[in-house]
Specification:
The structure holds two protein chains of two kinds. Chain A is α/β, with parallel strands linked by helices. Chain A is built from seven helices and ten strands. The chains are: A alpha/beta, B alpha/beta.
Amino acid sequence: MSTVMKIENLEAKIGDKQILKGLNLELEPGKVHAIMGPNGAGKSTLSKAIVGHYDIEVLGGDITFKGKSILEMEPEERALEGIFLSFQHPVEIPGVNNAYFLRTALNAKRKHQGKEELNAAEFLREMKSHLADLGMKSDMISRSLNEGFSGGEKKRNEILQMLILEPEVIILDEIDSGLDIDALRQVSEGINKMKDGKRTFLVITHYSRILDYIEPDYIHVLKDGKVIKTAGAELVPYLEEHGYDGIKED
Amino acid sequence: MANEGLDKAVSGEYALGFEIDIETETVPPGLDETTIAFISKKKEEPEWMLELRLKALKKWESMTEPHWAKLDYTPIDYQSISYFSAPKEQLDSLDEVDPKILEAYEKLGISLDEQKQLAGVKVAVDAVVDSVSVKTTYSEELEKHGVIFCSISEAIRDYPELVKKYMFSVVPMADNYFAALNSAVFTDGTFVYIPKGVRCPMELSTYFRINAINTGQFERTLIIADEGSHVSYNEGCSAPTRDDHQLHAAVVELIILKDAEIKYSTIQNWYPGDETGKGGIYNFVTKRAICEGENAKVSWTQVETGSAITWKYPSCILKGDNSIGEFYSVAVTTLAQQADTGTKMIHIGKNTKSTIISKGISAMKGQNTYRGLVKINNSAVGARNYSECDSLLIGSECGAHTFPYLESKDTQGQVEHEATTSKISDEQLFYLRQRGITEEDAVSMIVHGFCKQVFSQLPMEYAVEAKALLELTLEGSVG
């Protein structure tokens, strides 16, 4: 199996508490990997460690992306290389125009790739083409970033950013939380649009609900800071029935 | 903490610190009647003006420097300052202004050549270097509309009736220590008169440059908007990088008659000194407007990024019924800068309305104080005020302080006050960085967002300038 991202024996802590205790995970390019597990298993810590979040201190092990270790890289460098995190709780940034923010992010990426930057008109065309698909109103262009957004609007806005930035590895942290059924469908459609056989997804979720919409290729069960089982989608109904306690380690 | 490196990101760089290499005529330091007589003579002033100046000097000598502001600075030795400095060979036509001065203004982004400006929006400029106005553009074109736009020195000579009537009418000669000092020694500044019913056909502006060593700048500006008129006026300023502090004590008086409106915008970018507090301008300014008639409106918008010390409270006296006063302010203190700034809204007329939006940004060792007074007199039935004072802290060594004062005698008055203090959160920074935006750009994006309400009040071209300036002040990018 070829690997786009490899996590080897990763140990990490938040504050004084060690959360990840020798976690191993390989992501296969173009596939959807679901990370499931009980509360406190380390799911969000794993996603934070991948994007270089300031809360996390890596104690040991390594994360490589396309063969290169990323642990020493700044968060923005990891992003520019193609790693994207859809936040569980996107933060509000008052007064910062959503379109302006997104264009700045896209142009930072284009510059990094040696491409021409997009002007405001070109960018707006691009942005508008995605808004309708996600069931987003056009006032999303001019509103302040996440400010006063409903839970559903925030999640849609995360997916909008994903569609525009076209990352290679996409981490979706509890993307389904706080979404009603219509929003869940639209968000899932947005995600499925990005499934082109090359992009890789890491779907972090509590519940299997989202997996009805985004079909996973692999299920990884996380428990006490380690991946204890990796299987195909057939594991989902088993988990539904027996819960995490019923899982035997590989 | 993700805040590491933030200091570097907000240590700023002062891009306008160059010196114009010109010969100047500067009086020796010191202040007494002889100095005043010299200034008055230099400006070919009538006798009445000299008398007023001498009267102001007497009053100033009997006063003491105020220290109620939250500012900590080395005492000012008023006798060690030179009170008059002018570029030599002051000439009238554009062709004869010292090319070095023209070049310096070009460098500051201001064209004093009317021909060259035709491409963009027309902006009339009064260029003041140290103690004199070196050039006023578009005066003739403005004259066709009856608009008077000239230096205050010219106005004293050419329009004595208007000057006698209005100067000291809003800011009395001995209003405060610094205003009294200015009244005695003021050198140049701008005079504007907009006649009845005239909408000034272009933006007016003054650009103040301190250049000479060891001098102070004491400008005086007087703007009169006659009934039903409208004017938008902008001022900018800068000074060379020097190790010694220099004093800037200005007075601005605005008179707005019935149904008239003045929109007054400032981009203050005096040299701020370094991170240890060495050098920088001491900026002690008195600005006040009176809405004399019904439905008069005044709007102060200020972006304060410069100066070591800022002491400034642009105020509105809302005398006419239904008159409106507005104050929009962004004050940035980084390095070792200190600002004590705000406004006073004095409600006298019925149904008068005021709005205060103040945004303070502090970084490094910067100290930022908002001080504001809302006073509602008995007569001001139905008066309303809305105040919002927000502070943004970047790093942990800086400070933000808010002192709102309210004096309301009218039980019918409506006063609302909101204040917030926030830090640029690690979470916000991280969110933006996760999208590929550098930490520096992320800081500037959050700061711009914070200032949006104020920037949106500036005329377009100045808003662009203000944004760029803020970026430079806070980002330390190349000047």
